[in-house]
Amino acid sequence: MSLPIKHRNAASTREAILAAARNRFTLDGYDHAGLRAIAADAGVDPALICRYFGGKELLFAEVLATTGRDPMEIIAGDRASFGRRVAEALLRPTDCRPDRLAFVQLAIRSSTSPVASKLVRERIESQFIVPFTAWVGGECAAQKAWLAGSILMGAATMLALGCTPSNETPDDGMLDHLARTLQRLVDDD
Amino acid sequence: MSLPIKHRNAASTREAILAAARNRFTLDGYDHAGLRAIAADAGVDPALICRYFGGKELLFAEVLATTGRDPMEIIAGDRASFGRRVAEALLRPTDCRPDRLAFVQLAIRSSTSPVASKLVRERIESQFIVPFTAWVGGECAAQKAWLAGSILMGAATMLALGCTPSNETPDDGMLDHLARTLQRLVDDD
DNA sequence: GTCGCGTGTCAACAGATGGTGACTTATTAG
DNA sequence: CTAATAAGTCACCATCTGTTGACACGCGAC
After folding, report:
1. Which of A62, A152, B12, B22 has the most other CB atoms within 10 Å of its CB?
2. Distance (Å, rounded) from C-alpha A147 to C-alpha A86?
3. Whole-angstrom Cα distance, residue B29 to residue B73?
4. Which of A169, A186, A171, A154 is closest to A82 using CA atoms?
């Protein structure tokens, strides 16, 4: 986490700050991720963050924009395996590329902060609702997109809260049900 | 909101504080609902809140315990109309009794705060997951309960974020899809 | 070497937060 | 009427937050 030799390199320290911020924002949410904590993780003075990014809100905006890949990478594809694909991406983040749906974690943990929620909503709209609506097609595409997003957000919220059926790690039963529910959403009508 | 004549009555001012706190916590979440704002709404000095409830966390605990009715009032009942019943309770809070699923709003807005999330999780477990699991029955009851809770939390989160398919108020299409998805959860297997 | 500028640190500010003890005011008992 | 107690207020504290300006360090150019 901390580089043993501290070469003065603006680009790399900027990346270090961004990585630390991404981690803290994802773990603690916008409100509880303090600039001092982020700076400490990055091995940097808090003042530097403001000078580099122009403040906490701008930092969050940059983190949000660079966290996770385009969700459509997972969503778009074979229609028949959509449910399982997405469920696995959410419940088994270590199996596939770990950052596939990372922005969902980031989103739910910062959804309560007024300034962060605005940015979060815009990202959800532009990078999930709109492309998903186009991909799923059909008459009720918009409603399906909203519901699919709701299910993903809700499942992630419950996990973040520590609510699991077996009081353990997510099990196969959860994955099956989640996958089936999502699959039905794109299948019918 | 403010009584013109202020009789000194411990019980009624306690209720006023509780009502103001419930409102603020539901609207702004645990973190952004300040004791000063709650006190101002109740027409009371902030210090009184600490003296009456012993601090913000205990106040929140009492609000959480007294907000919304037992969710099973809506959930338990005719199995065939379960989906629509719950969907309407969530999306049309003004149609039925307004406080039926009020605790869901309270829950999602305070789910990010470490101290509040602990209380929220306990309430979800004890007043939703456990009784729902018993009610739905069957082999995968626990997974169904978790998924149902996830869907409710997610839908409420999306609404709270301002994400709706039509950028307007929740429409009938959303209600239909939500109802159907929930219904399938209890129907199959 | 040494000057200059990019890079980073330090100290401090203003604002807000939850919380506490001493104080004042109203109500009621005797 | 008066004294005791409940009800409520005030000033204040310690802490934390994001942010800023002045300062120190270090590397490259000359």
Report:
1. A152
2. 14
3. 25
4. A186
CB-CB neighbours of A47 under 10 Å: 10
Q: Which of A149, A177, A185 sits opposite B158 (nearest CB)?
A: A149
Cβ neighbours of residue A23 closer than 8 Å, sequence gap 6 or more:
A41
| Backbone torsion region of residue A33, taken as left when φ is above 0, otherwise alpha when ψ lies between -120 and 50, otherwise beta | beta
Measure the CA–CA gap between A139 and B168, rounded to whole angstroms: 18
**Among the residues of chain B, which ranges form H helices?**
10-32, 35-42, 46-53, 56-66, 72-75, 82-91, 102-109, 114-124, 130-136, 141-161, 172-187
Q: To which H or E segment does residue A119 belong?
A: helix A114-124
Block residue for tokens 């999330």: B117
Residue A179's contacts (CB-CB under 8 Å, 6 or more residues apart) are A83, A84, A86, A87, A88
* Angstrom distances, CA of residue B36 to CA of A52, B41, B90: 34, 9, 30
Residues 6+ apart with CB under 8 A from B62: B18, B53
Q: Which DSSP symbol is given to A189? A: -
Q: Please tell me the predicted confidence (pLDDT) of residue A72.
A: 80
Q: What's the gap in Å between the CA of B26 and the closest CA on chain A?
A: 11
> Could you tell me the pTM of the whole model?
0.91
pLDDT band at residue B76 under the 50/70/90 scheme: confident
B29 touches chain A (CB under 8 A): yes
In tens, the pLDDT along B27-73 reads: 999 999 999 999 999 999 999 999 999 999 999 999 999 987 777 88
Q: Is the dihedral of CA A132, A135, A141, A147 positive or negative?
A: negative
| A112 chain-B contacts, CB cut-off 8 A | 29, 31-32, 108-112
List the single range of B33-37, B95-99, B159-163, B173-177 with lowest mean pLDDT: B95-99
pLDDT at B188: 79
